[in-house]
């Protein structure tokens, strides 16, 4: 599932190409992806312009010129591609938005969605999300406060969108590895030193992954050499049985509260 770095990478690329370009065509191939009748959805969007693109957690919000919002959540397997009909990948598309000769293809949205909302509806949809740890207002003191009174495994905390927004399975494991903490570590037992190390690891891993395009499997457009560059940078995620890059150990995979977890038992500890 695309996480904060992948969606932030998309936000940056989309902002370079779509701002103030009128939507000239709308194709809906899967009506469950949108939140209204197909004809009404198309009528509302044709001629509209995107004036600003915002990312919130794992969502993208397209701000339209009339004040409404297009809320996108790719969920599991969703990807975006921007280009001509000749350039499009051989994949099924759920929604297509045309901007002249170029089209923004929404693919793999079997569980994802693209909803047209009012400002109030969009704010309500985002209202239950926790803070973002790359926000300039975040600091170690505020982060420590987020953990106060929390219980349970570190991995479960990191992927809880109501506590911390934007982190999913991949980056939770990468962050725990960077902080040298076991994903199963109980949050209530963390020392202040461990909390400080965890905070720095969250910021470091998310920033690095964002700067090199996250782990998406497909370029955003022809000539895009950034998107997906983090694929080869993962230290533990999806590396079961491979040697730890810090030396000595072997990456293992377990299941923790219904989620797969990758870590190194030699260099990750309770504190």
UniProtKB/TrEMBL annotation:
Among the GO biological process terms of this entry, one is: base-excision repair
Q: Which UniProt keywords apply?
A: DNA damage, DNA repair, DNA-binding, Endonuclease, Glycosidase, Hydrolase, Lyase, Metal-binding, Multifunctional enzyme, Nuclease, Zinc, Zinc-finger
Per UniProt, what is one GO molecular function of this protein? Answer: 8-oxo-7,8-dihydroguanine DNA N-glycosylase activity
Signal sequence region? none
Q: Is Hydrolase there in the keyword field?
A: yes
Q: What is its EC number?
A: 3.2.2.23, 4.2.99.18
Outline the extent of the Formamidopyrimidine-DNA glycosylase catalytic domain. Answer: 2-112
Similarity-based family: Belongs to the FPG family.
Put simply, this protein is called: Formamidopyrimidine-DNA glycosylase
Q: Which organism is it from?
A: Paenibacillus monticola
Q: What is the lineage of its organism?
A: Bacteria, Bacillati, Bacillota, Bacilli, Bacillales
